[in-house]
Structures are given as structure tokens and as C-alpha cells.
Amino acid sequence: MRRRIAPALLLPFALLLAACTAASSADGSGGAGSNTDGKGEVTLRVGDQKGNDEAVLRAAGELDDLPYKIRWSTFTSGPPILEAVSAGAVDIGGVGNTPPVFAAAAKSKIKVVAAKHGTADGEAILVKKGSPLKEVADLKGRSVAVAQGSSAHYQLVASLAKAGLSIKDVKATFLQPADALAAFTRGKVDAWAVWDPYTSQALRSADARVLTTGQGVVNGLNFQVAGPASIADKKKERAIGDYLKRLRRAQDWVYKHPEAWAEVWAKETGLPYEVALDSVKRTNGTRVYVAVDKAAVASEQKIADTFARLKLTPRRFDFADYVDTRFNGGLPPSTTAPRSYGRG
Predict the structure, then answer these.
(1) In angstroms, rounded to a whole number, what is the distance separating the alpha carbons of residues 336 and 344?
(2) Bridge partners (DSSP) listed for residue 37
(3) Is the peptide bond before 132 cis (omega within 30 degrees of 0)?
(4) Where is the Solute-binding protein family 3/N-terminal domain (predicted)?
(5) What CA–CA distances, in Å, run from 157 to 52, 120, 124?
(6) What CA–CA distance (Å, rounded) separates 136 from 167?
(7) What is the pLDDT of residues 249-281, one digit of tens each?
């Protein structure tokens, strides 16, 4: 199916692998590469995805004069990063709002230590521009492509519930983004629930329009997750605290320099520059670091309970048990409004 789709419609393979799905990569891939920055006796082992934390810290100049070493390992997606954290192979890594739920349900050894809050405009249910579907309620009886166990899966469930429907009222077609894009483009499905930058890509290249976004139904959070043993080590705890401050400053830089970051991000991932800039202004650049507080925990608990009810996770659990708030100092509440670039 994919071979018949114009190459411009398919996101770069490396980026497709970085989808925020709940399942680990089949071959257990991850941890490729071992770039090292900084100097000192302490080495912080960081799990990352292509075009994410290392790239933004480097672009913002936040890897200069590190008083400790950072050894980077690149993974295909959030779940294998959390597997590495749980196994003690890395100390900390950045992921979306859904992988920690599945890791916690599997009783992984993880602690959420930091959060950032962005708009949910990039979390969208897309339809074709000529589709007769005008609102979420119109999805009843229709086919919707979505990556099973992903943040988009939760957004679909929550959006349907808001419209008085359940997941059983639609024909959910579980596809990863590359296959979903092909199915959507060929008209094999009526709608596609997905996240940025795929949203931005589809709006530019796949004749798509937004039926609804995640605003008001998803929490818009991303997390830094560390290993309990790593934050129990005093030297690594100090390094992690410094690392998180550098990430906050780098996020400030992204907001102030969207075009510069879009250029770097496009080069890192192979995204077209225009798509990268759309995604920066729609989602990526709007994020602000916030406290991992009761509201954040409650919103993640809602996701966890939803997937447990759908029997996509093996048990119900208290998400608060997988959170450590020691790095919250001075940060605004998790409900703090994301940044905005206006309507231009």
C-alpha cells in the first residue's frame, strides 16, 4: 500500500519509528549511539529520541560548560527508553504522556521527575477536506485509524466520550502512522487520530482537515522519567537537577526562536522545514516546564484507568506511586497555560 503513496507524504523512517506508541519495538532496538558531552567524574546516561532533547540542548547552547558528562543513547520511541530506565541502563529520558502509564502498569522501576505542558492542537482527529463528517458524533459507525495504546488512542476514546459515544461505536483500525497515512490517503478509513508532527504533515500534504483536537480532553503533558536508583545517588541527583534546568532554558529558547529550531529539527529528522515550523508553532514550541503536581498525577491516572478499563494494561494502579516531586521547586502548576504564537 505504501509504495503507491507519493514519497512526500511519508514522514522520514527515523521519525516514524519515534511514534509515541505503547508497545516496544519488536526487535528491542534502541540505545544506538553514544555521544558524550561535558566533563567531570559524574556521568549522566540519558535516553533520547532523534531530534529531541540532545538536539534542542545543543541548538540552545545548553551543552556548553557541563560540569558533568552526559552520555547520550538514542532510542526509537518512549517505551524502550523506559525499559532502559527500569533496567538501570540509562538514568533519565524524555517521553510523552502515555508510555509512563504502560510502564507503570508493567511495574517498571521508574519515577516521573519533570513535566512540560503544551497545547493539544497537534493531537487531532483528521478527516479529508471533502468529508461529510463535521463533528465527532458523526464518527458513529465510521472507520478511524489510530495507533493502539498511543496518546492518540486515548484522545480518540476521550473525544468520543465527550460526544456521547464509546470506542465500540466506531470501527477502530489499529495502524502505526506510516500505514495509517497510506490508508487515510487512499480513503480506506474515514478518519485518522494522530499527533504532531504527523498532524502538521497531513494538513500540508494529505488533503486533511481537523475534525477535532485534543483541547479539553487530553492533558498536553510530556515527561522526564528517571530511575529510582539514579535519583537516590546524590551526585547523580545533582546532575539531574542541573540537566532539568538546562532543558527548561532550552525550551525557552525554542519558543523565542521557532524558525531556528525548525531548521535544526528538520535537519535532524528529515522533516520538510515548513512542516517542522508548523509543528513548532502548533505544539512543540508552546510547551512550558511545570510541576509534577496533584493535577498532573490526576490527569495521568485518568489515562491509566481508561486503558485498564479497555484491558490494554494488565492492572489498575496508583500513578502517584511512580512520581517523585523533589525537582518541582519554583515551577508553576501543571495547569499553567501553554505558550502561544497567536493566529498568524
Answers:
(1) 22
(2) 70
(3) no
(4) 43-257
(5) 28, 15, 12
(6) 12
(7) 999 999 999 999 999 999 998 999 999 999 999
Q: Which residues have CB under 8 Å from 331's CB, separation 6+?
A: 289, 290, 291
Burial of 164 (0-12, 13-18, 19+ CB in 10 A): exposed
* Helix/strand number for the chain, H first, E second: 12, 12
Q: Which of 225, 224, 243 is nearest to 70 (CA)?
A: 243
Amino acid identity of residue 61, one-letter, is G
Q: Using one digit for the tens of pLDDT, what is the confidence trace for 25-34? A: 333 344 555 5
Q: What is the pLDDT of residues 161-205, one digit of tens each?
A: 999 999 999 999 999 888 999 999 999 999 999 999 999 999 999
| CB of 114 closer than 8 Å to CB of 180 | no
Q: How confident is the model at residue 150 (pLDDT cuts 50, 70, 90)?
A: confident
Alpha-carbon span 47 to 35, nearest angstrom:
11
Number of residues in the chain:
344
**DSSP E strand stretches across 18-99:** 36-38, 43-49, 69-75, 92-95
Q: What are phi and psi of 124, to 5 degrees?
A: -140, 155
Q: CA-CA distance, 226 to 52, in Å (whole number)? A: 17
Measured distance CA(254)–CA(234) in Å, rounded: 30
